[in-house]
Protein backbone atom coordinates (compact mmCIF):
# COMPACT_ATOMS: atom_id res chain seq x y z
CA UNK A 1 0.00 0.00 0.00
CA UNK A 2 2.85 2.36 0.86
CA UNK A 3 4.42 1.59 -2.44
CA UNK A 4 1.13 2.22 -4.23
CA UNK A 5 0.78 5.61 -2.55
CA UNK A 6 4.34 6.53 -3.41
CA UNK A 7 3.87 5.49 -7.04
CA UNK A 8 0.61 7.43 -7.24
CA UNK A 9 2.23 10.69 -6.18
CA UNK A 10 5.25 10.05 -8.36
CA UNK A 11 2.88 9.30 -11.26
CA UNK A 12 0.94 12.51 -10.70
CA UNK A 13 4.18 14.48 -10.73
CA UNK A 14 5.26 12.81 -13.96
CA UNK A 15 1.77 13.24 -15.32
CA UNK A 16 1.89 16.97 -14.66
CA UNK A 17 4.91 17.23 -16.95
CA UNK A 18 3.17 15.18 -19.66
CA UNK A 19 0.13 17.39 -19.22
CA UNK A 20 2.19 20.51 -19.86
CA UNK A 21 3.76 18.95 -22.92
CA UNK A 22 0.42 17.70 -24.21
CA UNK A 23 -0.96 21.19 -23.64
CA UNK A 24 1.75 22.53 -25.95
CA UNK A 25 0.69 20.06 -28.65
CA UNK A 26 -2.97 20.98 -28.20
CA UNK A 27 -2.20 24.71 -28.41
CA UNK A 28 -0.61 24.31 -31.83
CA UNK A 29 -3.26 21.88 -32.99
CA UNK A 30 -5.99 24.38 -32.13
CA UNK A 31 -4.15 27.28 -33.70
CA UNK A 32 -2.93 25.66 -36.89
CA UNK A 33 -4.31 22.10 -37.18
CA UNK A 34 -0.77 20.74 -37.11
CA UNK A 35 0.61 18.15 -34.73
CA UNK A 36 4.05 19.55 -34.05
CA UNK A 37 6.29 16.50 -34.29
CA UNK A 38 9.28 18.78 -33.65
CA UNK A 39 8.01 19.74 -30.21
CA UNK A 40 10.28 17.30 -28.41
CA UNK A 41 13.40 18.38 -30.30
CA UNK A 42 12.55 22.06 -29.75
CA UNK A 43 12.17 21.45 -26.02
CA UNK A 44 15.54 19.69 -25.91
CA UNK A 45 17.18 22.60 -27.73
CA UNK A 46 15.89 25.15 -25.21
CA UNK A 47 16.79 22.87 -22.30
CA UNK A 48 20.36 22.74 -23.59
CA UNK A 49 20.39 26.53 -23.86
CA UNK A 50 19.01 26.83 -20.33
CA UNK A 51 21.56 24.48 -18.81
CA UNK A 52 24.40 26.18 -20.68
CA UNK A 53 23.41 29.45 -19.03
CA UNK A 54 23.07 27.71 -15.67
CA UNK A 55 26.55 26.24 -16.00
CA UNK A 56 28.01 29.58 -17.05
CA UNK A 57 26.35 31.71 -14.36
CA UNK A 58 25.69 29.18 -11.61
CA UNK A 59 22.09 30.30 -11.35
CA UNK A 60 19.43 27.70 -12.10
CA UNK A 61 16.72 30.32 -12.35
CA UNK A 62 18.54 32.39 -14.94
CA UNK A 63 18.86 29.25 -17.06
CA UNK A 64 15.21 28.44 -16.44
CA UNK A 65 14.14 31.85 -17.70
CA UNK A 66 16.46 31.60 -20.70
CA UNK A 67 14.91 28.23 -21.60
CA UNK A 68 11.35 29.57 -21.45
CA UNK A 69 12.19 32.74 -23.39
CA UNK A 70 14.19 30.59 -25.80
CA UNK A 71 11.03 28.53 -26.31
CA UNK A 72 9.04 31.65 -27.16
CA UNK A 73 11.67 32.76 -29.67
CA UNK A 74 12.18 29.32 -31.19
CA UNK A 75 8.45 28.76 -31.56
CA UNK A 76 7.95 32.08 -33.30
CA UNK A 77 11.00 31.44 -35.47
CA UNK A 78 9.83 28.00 -36.56
CA UNK A 79 6.43 29.39 -37.51
CA UNK A 80 7.75 32.47 -39.28
CA UNK A 81 10.63 30.88 -41.14
CA UNK A 82 9.42 27.36 -41.89
CA UNK A 83 5.87 26.34 -41.06
CA UNK A 84 4.30 29.39 -42.65
CA UNK A 85 5.57 28.32 -46.06
CA UNK A 86 4.46 24.72 -45.88
CA UNK A 87 1.71 23.72 -48.24
CA UNK A 88 -0.96 22.48 -45.86
CA UNK A 89 -3.26 20.98 -48.44
CA UNK A 90 -2.05 17.56 -47.35
CA UNK A 91 -1.65 16.92 -43.62
CA UNK A 92 1.43 14.85 -44.42
CA UNK A 93 3.45 17.91 -45.45
CA UNK A 94 3.42 19.54 -42.04
CA UNK A 95 4.45 16.27 -40.40
CA UNK A 96 7.30 15.70 -42.85
CA UNK A 97 8.65 19.24 -42.41
CA UNK A 98 8.48 18.89 -38.62
CA UNK A 99 10.48 15.66 -38.91
CA UNK A 100 13.05 17.54 -40.97
CA UNK A 101 13.29 20.07 -38.14
CA UNK A 102 13.81 17.20 -35.68
CA UNK A 103 16.78 15.98 -37.72
CA UNK A 104 18.25 19.49 -37.97
CA UNK A 105 17.86 20.28 -34.27
CA UNK A 106 19.23 16.92 -33.13
CA UNK A 107 22.13 17.16 -35.54
CA UNK A 108 23.07 20.70 -34.52
CA UNK A 109 22.78 19.88 -30.82
CA UNK A 110 24.96 16.83 -31.31
CA UNK A 111 27.57 18.91 -33.10
CA UNK A 112 27.65 21.56 -30.38
CA UNK A 113 27.27 19.46 -27.24
CA UNK A 114 28.15 15.92 -28.28
CA UNK A 115 25.96 12.82 -28.04
CA UNK A 116 26.62 11.82 -24.46
CA UNK A 117 24.24 12.32 -21.57
CA UNK A 118 24.95 15.53 -19.64
CA UNK A 119 23.95 15.64 -16.00
CA UNK A 120 21.21 18.15 -15.30
CA UNK A 121 20.81 19.07 -11.63
CA UNK A 122 17.39 19.75 -10.14
CA UNK A 123 16.80 23.11 -8.41
CA UNK A 124 15.21 21.40 -5.41
CA UNK A 125 15.89 18.22 -3.54
CA UNK A 126 14.31 15.15 -5.07
CA UNK A 127 14.29 13.33 -1.70
CA UNK A 128 10.72 12.68 -0.72
CA UNK A 129 9.24 13.96 2.54
CA UNK A 130 8.02 11.33 4.95
CA UNK A 131 4.36 11.36 5.83
CA UNK A 132 3.73 8.88 8.64
CA UNK A 133 6.63 6.73 7.55
CA UNK A 134 5.65 6.80 3.86
CA UNK A 135 7.76 8.69 1.35
CA UNK A 136 5.34 10.63 -0.81
CA UNK A 137 6.40 13.93 -2.29
CA UNK A 138 9.69 15.69 -2.81
CA UNK A 139 10.27 19.42 -2.95
CA UNK A 140 10.88 18.98 -6.65
CA UNK A 141 7.47 17.33 -7.14
CA UNK A 142 5.85 20.32 -5.43
CA UNK A 143 7.77 22.64 -7.75
CA UNK A 144 6.51 20.66 -10.77
CA UNK A 145 2.90 20.85 -9.58
CA UNK A 146 3.21 24.58 -8.92
CA UNK A 147 4.82 25.33 -12.28
CA UNK A 148 2.34 23.29 -14.33
CA UNK A 149 -0.58 24.59 -12.29
CA UNK A 150 0.55 28.15 -12.90
CA UNK A 151 0.79 27.53 -16.65
CA UNK A 152 -2.68 26.03 -16.78
CA UNK A 153 -4.17 28.94 -14.84
CA UNK A 154 -2.34 31.55 -16.91
CA UNK A 155 -3.37 29.95 -20.20
CA UNK A 156 -6.98 29.71 -19.05
CA UNK A 157 -6.94 33.36 -18.06
CA UNK A 158 -5.31 34.32 -21.34
CA UNK A 159 -7.84 32.52 -23.49
CA UNK A 160 -10.98 33.37 -21.54
CA UNK A 161 -10.32 36.78 -20.00
CA UNK A 162 -8.09 38.80 -22.29
CA UNK A 163 -8.72 40.42 -25.70
CA UNK A 164 -5.57 38.77 -27.06
CA UNK A 165 -6.88 35.36 -26.12
CA UNK A 166 -10.18 36.13 -27.77
CA UNK A 167 -8.37 37.21 -30.93
CA UNK A 168 -6.31 34.03 -30.94
CA UNK A 169 -9.43 31.92 -30.65
CA UNK A 170 -11.16 33.91 -33.36
CA UNK A 171 -8.17 33.67 -35.69
CA UNK A 172 -8.05 29.89 -35.28
CA UNK A 173 -11.81 29.39 -35.55
CA UNK A 174 -12.63 31.64 -38.50
CA UNK A 175 -9.50 33.11 -40.06
CA UNK A 176 -11.23 34.90 -42.93
CA UNK A 177 -13.92 36.55 -40.85
CA UNK A 178 -11.37 37.53 -38.21
CA UNK A 179 -9.20 39.14 -40.85
CA UNK A 180 -12.16 41.19 -42.06
CA UNK A 181 -12.76 42.31 -38.50
CA UNK A 182 -9.19 43.52 -38.15
CA UNK A 183 -7.61 40.66 -36.24
CA UNK A 184 -3.95 40.17 -37.26
CA UNK A 185 -4.46 36.49 -38.03
CA UNK A 186 -0.90 35.60 -38.97
CA UNK A 187 0.45 37.38 -35.91
CA UNK A 188 -1.93 35.37 -33.73
CA UNK A 189 -0.66 32.19 -35.35
CA UNK A 190 2.93 33.15 -34.56
CA UNK A 191 1.93 33.98 -31.00
CA UNK A 192 0.23 30.59 -30.69
CA UNK A 193 3.38 28.78 -31.83
CA UNK A 194 5.54 30.87 -29.49
CA UNK A 195 3.32 30.16 -26.50
CA UNK A 196 3.13 26.46 -27.29
CA UNK A 197 6.89 26.17 -27.67
CA UNK A 198 7.42 28.01 -24.38
CA UNK A 199 5.07 25.60 -22.59
CA UNK A 200 6.93 22.73 -24.26
CA UNK A 201 10.23 24.17 -23.04
CA UNK A 202 8.87 24.38 -19.51
CA UNK A 203 7.89 20.71 -19.70
CA UNK A 204 11.35 19.90 -21.03
CA UNK A 205 13.08 21.76 -18.18
CA UNK A 206 10.87 19.95 -15.67
CA UNK A 207 11.43 16.47 -17.06
CA UNK A 208 15.19 16.58 -17.64
CA UNK A 209 16.31 16.33 -13.98
CA UNK A 210 14.08 13.28 -13.48
CA UNK A 211 15.59 11.37 -16.40
CA UNK A 212 19.10 10.29 -17.29
CA UNK A 213 20.09 13.82 -18.23
CA UNK A 214 20.34 15.96 -21.33
CA UNK A 215 20.72 14.21 -24.66
CA UNK A 216 19.69 15.23 -28.19
CA UNK A 217 17.20 12.33 -28.21
CA UNK A 218 16.10 12.82 -24.61
CA UNK A 219 12.52 13.80 -25.45
CA UNK A 220 11.57 11.04 -27.88
CA UNK A 221 9.68 9.05 -25.28
CA UNK A 222 8.31 12.22 -23.67
CA UNK A 223 6.90 13.20 -27.03
CA UNK A 224 5.19 9.84 -27.51
CA UNK A 225 3.75 9.95 -23.99
CA UNK A 226 2.53 13.51 -24.44
CA UNK A 227 1.09 12.70 -27.86
CA UNK A 228 -0.79 9.80 -26.28
CA UNK A 229 -1.99 12.14 -23.53
CA UNK A 230 -3.15 14.72 -26.06
CA UNK A 231 -4.94 12.10 -28.17
CA UNK A 232 -6.50 10.64 -25.02
CA UNK A 233 -7.85 14.09 -24.28
CA UNK A 234 -9.10 14.58 -27.80
CA UNK A 235 -6.23 16.69 -29.24
CA UNK A 236 -8.55 19.69 -29.23
CA UNK A 237 -9.27 20.07 -25.55
CA UNK A 238 -6.85 21.70 -23.07
CA UNK A 239 -8.72 20.13 -20.16
CA UNK A 240 -8.48 16.79 -21.91
CA UNK A 241 -4.74 17.26 -22.37
CA UNK A 242 -4.22 17.86 -18.65
CA UNK A 243 -6.36 14.88 -17.64
CA UNK A 244 -4.75 12.76 -20.35
CA UNK A 245 -1.30 13.76 -19.12
CA UNK A 246 -2.11 12.72 -15.55
CA UNK A 247 -3.58 9.40 -16.73
CA UNK A 248 -0.52 8.60 -18.86
CA UNK A 249 1.82 9.64 -16.04
CA UNK A 250 0.06 7.37 -13.55
CA UNK A 251 -0.04 4.46 -16.00
CA UNK A 252 3.66 4.80 -16.83
CA UNK A 253 4.65 4.98 -13.18
CA UNK A 254 2.54 2.00 -12.13
CA UNK A 255 3.86 -0.07 -15.03
CA UNK A 256 7.49 0.91 -14.31
CA UNK A 257 6.99 0.32 -10.60
CA UNK A 258 5.32 -3.06 -10.78
CA UNK A 259 6.48 -4.57 -14.08
CA UNK A 260 9.85 -2.90 -14.72
CA UNK A 261 10.99 0.29 -16.38
CA UNK A 262 11.61 -1.31 -19.77
CA UNK A 263 7.94 -2.26 -20.12
CA UNK A 264 6.74 1.35 -19.78
CA UNK A 265 7.21 2.42 -23.44
CA UNK A 266 5.21 -0.63 -24.55
CA UNK A 267 2.42 0.34 -22.16
CA UNK A 268 2.27 3.77 -23.81
CA UNK A 269 2.08 2.16 -27.25
CA UNK A 270 -0.71 -0.17 -26.13
CA UNK A 271 -2.63 2.71 -24.56
CA UNK A 272 -2.23 4.75 -27.75
CA UNK A 273 -3.50 1.87 -29.89
CA UNK A 274 -6.45 1.27 -27.58
CA UNK A 275 -7.42 4.94 -27.56
CA UNK A 276 -6.99 5.40 -31.31
CA UNK A 277 -9.03 2.33 -32.14
CA UNK A 278 -11.58 2.58 -29.35
CA UNK A 279 -12.12 6.31 -29.06
CA UNK A 280 -10.22 8.08 -31.82
CA UNK A 281 -11.74 11.42 -30.85
CA UNK A 282 -10.53 11.09 -27.30
CA UNK A 283 -12.30 10.82 -23.99
CA UNK A 284 -13.38 14.43 -24.05
CA UNK A 285 -14.78 14.62 -27.52
CA UNK A 286 -18.16 16.19 -27.79
CA UNK A 287 -20.67 15.95 -30.58
CA UNK A 288 -20.91 19.71 -30.88
CA UNK A 289 -18.53 21.82 -32.90
CA UNK A 290 -15.37 23.13 -31.34
CA UNK A 291 -16.00 25.88 -28.86
CA UNK A 292 -12.84 27.83 -29.38
CA UNK B 1 -16.62 -9.86 -58.14
CA UNK B 2 -19.23 -7.30 -58.98
CA UNK B 3 -16.98 -4.32 -58.46
CA UNK B 4 -16.67 -1.60 -61.03
CA UNK B 5 -13.37 -0.44 -62.41
CA UNK B 6 -12.06 2.87 -61.10
CA UNK B 7 -12.46 5.73 -63.55
CA UNK B 8 -9.62 5.94 -66.02
CA UNK B 9 -8.73 9.49 -64.95
CA UNK B 10 -6.94 8.56 -61.75
CA UNK B 11 -4.62 6.19 -63.54
CA UNK B 12 -2.95 8.74 -65.76
CA UNK B 13 -0.54 10.06 -63.13
CA UNK B 14 2.61 8.46 -64.47
CA UNK B 15 2.16 7.58 -68.09
CA UNK B 16 5.85 6.69 -68.29
CA UNK B 17 5.56 3.67 -66.00
CA UNK B 18 2.58 2.52 -67.99
CA UNK B 19 4.52 2.24 -71.18
CA UNK B 20 7.83 0.85 -70.01
CA UNK B 21 7.73 -2.77 -68.93
CA UNK B 22 9.52 -3.14 -65.56
CA UNK B 23 11.50 -6.05 -66.97
CA UNK B 24 13.09 -3.64 -69.42
CA UNK B 25 14.96 -1.88 -66.65
CA UNK B 26 15.25 -4.63 -64.06
CA UNK B 27 17.11 -7.08 -66.31
CA UNK B 28 19.73 -4.55 -67.52
CA UNK B 29 20.08 -3.37 -63.91
CA UNK B 30 20.79 -6.93 -62.82
CA UNK B 31 23.48 -7.33 -65.50
CA UNK B 32 25.00 -3.96 -64.60
CA UNK B 33 25.14 -4.84 -60.90
CA UNK B 34 26.70 -8.21 -61.65
CA UNK B 35 29.36 -6.54 -63.76
CA UNK B 36 29.98 -3.91 -61.10
CA UNK B 37 30.53 -6.49 -58.37
CA UNK B 38 33.44 -7.94 -60.34
CA UNK B 39 35.14 -4.57 -60.83
CA UNK B 40 34.54 -2.72 -57.56
CA UNK B 41 36.89 -2.98 -54.58
CA UNK B 42 35.44 -4.81 -51.53
CA UNK B 43 34.34 -1.70 -49.61
CA UNK B 44 32.50 -0.27 -52.60
CA UNK B 45 30.85 -3.64 -53.08
CA UNK B 46 29.70 -3.49 -49.49
CA UNK B 47 28.24 -0.03 -50.08
CA UNK B 48 26.58 -1.27 -53.25
CA UNK B 49 25.02 -4.07 -51.21
CA UNK B 50 23.81 -1.53 -48.63
CA UNK B 51 22.13 0.52 -51.38
CA UNK B 52 20.34 -2.64 -52.47
CA UNK B 53 19.15 -3.37 -48.96
CA UNK B 54 17.93 0.23 -48.53
CA UNK B 55 16.20 0.06 -51.91
CA UNK B 56 13.96 -2.77 -50.68
CA UNK B 57 12.53 -0.66 -47.87
CA UNK B 58 12.43 2.70 -49.67
CA UNK B 59 10.62 1.10 -52.61
CA UNK B 60 8.01 -0.34 -50.29
CA UNK B 61 7.65 2.91 -48.37
CA UNK B 62 7.31 5.07 -51.45
CA UNK B 63 4.46 2.86 -52.66
CA UNK B 64 2.73 3.12 -49.28
CA UNK B 65 3.18 6.87 -48.81
CA UNK B 66 3.20 8.02 -52.39
CA UNK B 67 0.51 5.86 -53.96
CA UNK B 68 -1.65 5.21 -50.92
CA UNK B 69 -1.06 8.37 -48.87
CA UNK B 70 -0.21 6.61 -45.61
CA UNK B 71 2.83 8.04 -43.83
CA UNK B 72 4.66 5.45 -41.75
CA UNK B 73 7.39 6.44 -39.31
CA UNK B 74 7.61 2.85 -38.12
CA UNK B 75 9.41 1.20 -40.99
CA UNK B 76 12.63 1.14 -39.00
CA UNK B 77 10.81 -0.99 -36.44
CA UNK B 78 9.52 -3.29 -39.18
CA UNK B 79 13.09 -3.66 -40.43
CA UNK B 80 14.12 -4.58 -36.89
CA UNK B 81 11.39 -7.25 -36.90
CA UNK B 82 12.79 -8.75 -40.07
CA UNK B 83 16.39 -8.55 -38.84
CA UNK B 84 15.67 -10.22 -35.51
CA UNK B 85 13.63 -12.95 -37.19
CA UNK B 86 16.49 -13.67 -39.55
CA UNK B 87 18.98 -13.75 -36.68
CA UNK B 88 16.89 -16.18 -34.65
CA UNK B 89 16.25 -18.42 -37.68
CA UNK B 90 19.90 -18.39 -38.77
CA UNK B 91 21.13 -19.26 -35.32
CA UNK B 92 18.82 -22.25 -35.23
CA UNK B 93 18.75 -23.59 -38.82
CA UNK B 94 21.44 -21.64 -40.68
CA UNK B 95 19.70 -21.80 -44.06
CA UNK B 96 19.74 -18.29 -45.53
CA UNK B 97 16.78 -18.67 -47.91
CA UNK B 98 14.65 -20.05 -45.10
CA UNK B 99 15.72 -17.24 -42.78
CA UNK B 100 14.89 -14.52 -45.28
CA UNK B 101 11.55 -16.13 -46.07
CA UNK B 102 10.69 -16.32 -42.37
CA UNK B 103 11.77 -12.70 -41.88
CA UNK B 104 9.46 -11.54 -44.67
CA UNK B 105 6.57 -13.64 -43.39
CA UNK B 106 6.86 -12.50 -39.77
CA UNK B 107 7.17 -8.86 -40.80
CA UNK B 108 4.19 -9.26 -43.11
CA UNK B 109 2.11 -10.43 -40.18
CA UNK B 110 3.38 -7.55 -38.01
CA UNK B 111 2.62 -5.15 -40.84
CA UNK B 112 -0.87 -6.60 -41.11
CA UNK B 113 -1.52 -5.87 -37.44
CA UNK B 114 -0.25 -2.29 -37.71
CA UNK B 115 -2.02 -1.91 -41.04
CA UNK B 116 -5.37 -2.91 -39.53
CA UNK B 117 -4.97 -0.10 -37.03
CA UNK B 118 -3.57 2.24 -39.66
CA UNK B 119 -6.54 1.81 -41.96
CA UNK B 120 -8.70 3.54 -39.37
CA UNK B 121 -6.29 6.41 -38.83
CA UNK B 122 -5.47 9.49 -40.86
CA UNK B 123 -2.63 11.97 -41.16
CA UNK B 124 -1.01 12.93 -37.87
CA UNK B 125 -2.70 10.13 -35.92
CA UNK B 126 -1.13 7.47 -38.12
CA UNK B 127 2.23 9.25 -37.99
CA UNK B 128 2.05 9.37 -34.18
CA UNK B 129 1.13 5.71 -33.86
CA UNK B 130 3.90 4.50 -36.16
CA UNK B 131 6.35 6.84 -34.40
CA UNK B 132 5.43 5.15 -31.13
CA UNK B 133 6.12 1.76 -32.73
CA UNK B 134 9.57 2.96 -33.77
CA UNK B 135 10.38 4.31 -30.30
CA UNK B 136 9.33 1.09 -28.57
CA UNK B 137 11.86 -1.22 -30.33
CA UNK B 138 14.69 -0.97 -27.74
CA UNK B 139 12.18 -1.44 -24.95
CA UNK B 140 10.96 -4.69 -26.49
CA UNK B 141 14.53 -5.90 -26.98
CA UNK B 142 15.36 -5.33 -23.32
CA UNK B 143 12.08 -6.61 -21.90
CA UNK B 144 12.39 -9.96 -23.62
CA UNK B 145 16.14 -10.05 -23.19
CA UNK B 146 16.30 -13.85 -23.03
CA UNK B 147 15.28 -13.96 -26.68
CA UNK B 148 16.68 -10.67 -27.97
CA UNK B 149 19.63 -10.16 -25.61
CA UNK B 150 18.77 -6.54 -24.80
CA UNK B 151 21.14 -3.81 -26.05
CA UNK B 152 23.93 -6.17 -27.11
CA UNK B 153 21.69 -7.85 -29.63
CA UNK B 154 22.39 -11.11 -31.44
CA UNK B 155 25.07 -12.28 -33.81
CA UNK B 156 23.97 -13.88 -37.05
CA UNK B 157 25.39 -17.24 -38.03
CA UNK B 158 26.08 -17.37 -41.76
CA UNK B 159 27.51 -19.99 -44.09
CA UNK B 160 30.65 -18.68 -45.81
CA UNK B 161 30.04 -17.76 -49.47
CA UNK B 162 31.21 -20.06 -52.28
CA UNK B 163 35.00 -20.07 -52.73
CA UNK B 164 35.05 -18.22 -56.03
CA UNK B 165 33.55 -14.97 -54.68
CA UNK B 166 34.47 -12.58 -51.91
CA UNK B 167 32.15 -11.94 -48.98
CA UNK B 168 31.32 -8.43 -50.17
CA UNK B 169 30.56 -9.62 -53.68
CA UNK B 170 28.27 -12.28 -52.35
CA UNK B 171 26.55 -9.76 -50.06
CA UNK B 172 25.96 -7.47 -53.04
CA UNK B 173 24.43 -10.35 -54.98
CA UNK B 174 22.10 -11.32 -52.17
CA UNK B 175 21.00 -7.75 -51.47
CA UNK B 176 20.46 -6.80 -55.09
CA UNK B 177 18.63 -10.03 -55.84
CA UNK B 178 16.24 -9.04 -53.06
CA UNK B 179 16.05 -5.42 -54.23
CA UNK B 180 15.38 -6.22 -57.88
CA UNK B 181 12.73 -8.80 -57.07
CA UNK B 182 11.09 -6.23 -54.77
CA UNK B 183 11.18 -3.54 -57.44
CA UNK B 184 9.82 -5.92 -60.05
CA UNK B 185 6.92 -7.06 -57.87
CA UNK B 186 6.10 -3.51 -56.76
CA UNK B 187 6.29 -2.16 -60.30
CA UNK B 188 3.79 -4.74 -61.52
CA UNK B 189 1.56 -4.15 -58.50
CA UNK B 190 1.61 -0.38 -59.03
CA UNK B 191 0.79 -0.74 -62.73
CA UNK B 192 -2.07 -3.09 -62.20
CA UNK B 193 -5.45 -2.87 -60.61
CA UNK B 194 -4.01 -2.71 -57.07
CA UNK B 195 -2.03 0.40 -57.96
CA UNK B 196 -5.14 2.06 -59.37
CA UNK B 197 -7.09 1.17 -56.24
CA UNK B 198 -4.36 2.62 -54.02
CA UNK B 199 -4.29 5.91 -55.91
CA UNK B 200 -8.07 6.13 -55.96
CA UNK B 201 -8.18 5.65 -52.18
CA UNK B 202 -5.46 8.23 -51.67
CA UNK B 203 -7.15 10.81 -53.88
CA UNK B 204 -10.70 10.53 -52.66
CA UNK B 205 -11.94 7.84 -50.31
CA UNK B 206 -15.59 8.52 -50.93
CA UNK B 207 -15.21 8.38 -54.68
CA UNK B 208 -13.17 5.18 -54.35
CA UNK B 209 -15.88 3.63 -52.23
CA UNK B 210 -18.51 4.62 -54.77
CA UNK B 211 -16.44 2.96 -57.47
CA UNK B 212 -16.61 -0.26 -55.49
CA UNK B 213 -13.11 -0.24 -54.07
CA UNK B 214 -12.69 -1.63 -50.57
CA UNK B 215 -10.99 1.34 -48.92
CA UNK B 216 -9.90 -0.37 -45.71
CA UNK B 217 -8.85 -3.51 -47.54
CA UNK B 218 -6.72 -1.55 -49.97
CA UNK B 219 -5.06 0.39 -47.16
CA UNK B 220 -4.29 -2.71 -45.10
CA UNK B 221 -2.98 -4.50 -48.17
CA UNK B 222 -0.74 -1.55 -49.05
CA UNK B 223 0.67 -1.55 -45.55
CA UNK B 224 1.22 -5.31 -45.64
CA UNK B 225 3.08 -5.15 -48.96
CA UNK B 226 5.21 -2.29 -47.70
CA UNK B 227 5.92 -4.12 -44.44
CA UNK B 228 7.04 -7.22 -46.31
CA UNK B 229 9.57 -5.08 -48.19
CA UNK B 230 10.78 -3.59 -44.90
CA UNK B 231 11.14 -7.10 -43.46
CA UNK B 232 13.24 -8.18 -46.41
CA UNK B 233 15.41 -5.07 -46.03
CA UNK B 234 15.84 -5.77 -42.32
CA UNK B 235 16.89 -9.35 -43.03
CA UNK B 236 19.41 -8.14 -45.62
CA UNK B 237 20.83 -5.62 -43.13
CA UNK B 238 21.26 -8.43 -40.61
CA UNK B 239 23.14 -10.40 -43.27
CA UNK B 240 25.31 -7.36 -44.06
CA UNK B 241 26.18 -6.56 -40.46
CA UNK B 242 26.17 -10.22 -39.34
CA UNK B 243 24.58 -9.00 -36.14
CA UNK B 244 21.41 -7.26 -34.98
CA UNK B 245 20.92 -4.86 -32.10
CA UNK B 246 18.33 -2.19 -31.22
CA UNK B 247 21.01 0.45 -31.85
CA UNK B 248 20.99 -0.43 -35.53
CA UNK B 249 17.32 0.53 -35.82
CA UNK B 250 16.98 3.87 -34.02
CA UNK B 251 14.17 6.33 -34.56
CA UNK B 252 16.43 8.32 -36.89
CA UNK B 253 16.52 5.36 -39.28
CA UNK B 254 12.76 5.58 -39.70
CA UNK B 255 13.02 9.34 -40.24
CA UNK B 256 15.85 8.84 -42.75
CA UNK B 257 13.67 6.44 -44.72
CA UNK B 258 10.83 8.95 -44.92
CA UNK B 259 13.32 11.61 -45.92
CA UNK B 260 14.77 9.40 -48.64
CA UNK B 261 11.44 8.71 -50.30
CA UNK B 262 10.24 12.32 -50.01
CA UNK B 263 13.39 13.72 -51.57
CA UNK B 264 13.48 11.03 -54.21
CA UNK B 265 9.93 11.82 -55.22
CA UNK B 266 7.04 10.07 -53.55
CA UNK B 267 5.36 7.22 -55.35
CA UNK B 268 8.16 6.65 -57.86
CA UNK B 269 10.40 3.62 -57.74
CA UNK B 270 13.15 5.65 -59.39
CA UNK B 271 12.80 8.06 -56.48
CA UNK B 272 13.24 5.15 -54.09
CA UNK B 273 16.53 4.33 -55.84
CA UNK B 274 17.71 7.95 -55.54
CA UNK B 275 16.74 7.88 -51.87
CA UNK B 276 18.59 4.61 -51.26
CA UNK B 277 21.74 5.99 -52.90
CA UNK B 278 21.49 9.18 -50.81
CA UNK B 279 21.12 7.13 -47.63
CA UNK B 280 24.50 5.54 -48.31
CA UNK B 281 26.26 8.47 -49.97
CA UNK B 282 25.39 11.35 -47.62
CA UNK B 283 26.69 9.73 -44.40
CA UNK B 284 29.80 8.75 -46.35
CA UNK B 285 30.38 12.36 -47.45
CA UNK B 286 29.65 13.64 -43.96
CA UNK B 287 32.07 11.06 -42.59
CA UNK B 288 34.92 12.21 -44.80
CA UNK B 289 34.23 15.87 -43.96
CA UNK B 290 34.22 15.02 -40.25
CA UNK B 291 37.48 13.15 -40.66
CA UNK B 292 39.12 16.09 -42.42
CA UNK B 293 37.91 18.40 -39.68
CA UNK B 294 39.15 15.90 -37.09
CA UNK B 295 35.99 16.32 -35.08
CA UNK B 296 34.23 13.39 -33.50
CA UNK B 297 31.09 15.38 -32.87
CA UNK B 298 30.61 16.17 -36.54
CA UNK B 299 30.52 12.47 -37.30
CA UNK B 300 26.93 11.38 -37.78
CA UNK B 301 25.50 14.67 -36.65
CA UNK B 302 26.59 16.40 -39.83
CA UNK B 303 24.68 13.83 -41.86
CA UNK B 304 21.67 14.29 -39.59
CA UNK B 305 21.68 18.06 -40.06
CA UNK B 306 22.26 17.76 -43.76
CA UNK B 307 19.35 15.35 -44.19
CA UNK B 308 17.11 17.67 -42.21
CA UNK B 309 18.06 20.76 -44.19
CA UNK B 310 17.57 18.99 -47.51
CA UNK B 311 14.22 17.62 -46.40
CA UNK B 312 12.89 20.99 -45.24
CA UNK B 313 14.30 22.73 -48.31
CA UNK B 314 12.67 20.25 -50.68
CA UNK B 315 9.35 20.55 -48.89
CA UNK B 316 9.43 24.36 -48.96
CA UNK B 317 10.97 24.97 -52.37
CA UNK B 318 8.67 22.49 -54.09
CA UNK B 319 5.53 22.13 -52.02
CA UNK B 320 4.64 19.55 -54.65
CA UNK B 321 8.08 18.00 -54.22
CA UNK B 322 5.70 15.33 -53.14
CA UNK B 323 5.03 15.11 -56.86
CA UNK B 324 2.22 12.67 -56.53
CA UNK B 325 0.25 14.87 -54.15
CA UNK B 326 0.17 17.76 -56.60
CA UNK B 327 -3.41 17.08 -57.61
CA UNK B 328 -4.58 18.23 -54.20
CA UNK B 329 -3.22 21.71 -54.72
CA UNK B 330 -5.00 22.07 -58.00
CA UNK B 331 -8.23 20.91 -56.48
CA UNK B 332 -8.12 23.41 -53.66
CA UNK B 333 -7.06 26.40 -55.69
CA UNK B 334 -9.37 29.33 -55.31
CA UNK B 335 -10.52 28.26 -51.89
CA UNK B 336 -8.47 30.71 -49.91
Automatic annotation (TrEMBL), chain A:
GO terms for cellular component: plasma membrane. GO terms for molecular function: transmembrane transporter activity. Keywords: Amino-acid transport, Cell membrane, Membrane, Transmembrane, Transmembrane helix, Transport. The chain crosses the membrane at residues 12-29, 59-78, 90-113, 142-159, 180-208, 261-278. InterPro entries: ABC_transp_permease, BCAA_transport_permease. GO terms for biological process: amino acid transport. Its main location: membrane. It is a multi-pass membrane protein. It comes from the Bacteria. It is found in: Cell membrane. It holds the Pfam family BPD_transp_2. The keyword Transport applies. Belongs to the binding-protein-dependent transport system permease family. LivHM subfamily. This is Branched-chain amino acid ABC transporter permease. It comes from Paractinoplanes tereljensis. The gene is livH.
Automatic annotation (TrEMBL), chain B:
It is a multi-pass membrane protein. Keywords: Cell membrane, Membrane, Transmembrane, Transmembrane helix. One of its GO terms (molecular function) is branched-chain amino acid transmembrane transporter activity. The chain crosses the membrane at residues 23-40, 46-64, 95-118, 170-190, 220-241, 247-266, 273-290, 302-325. GO terms for cellular component: plasma membrane. It is found in: Cell membrane. Its main location: membrane. This is Branched-chain amino acid ABC transporter permease. It comes from Paractinoplanes tereljensis. The lineage of its organism: Bacteria, Bacillati, Actinomycetota, Actinomycetes, Micromonosporales. The gene is livM_2.
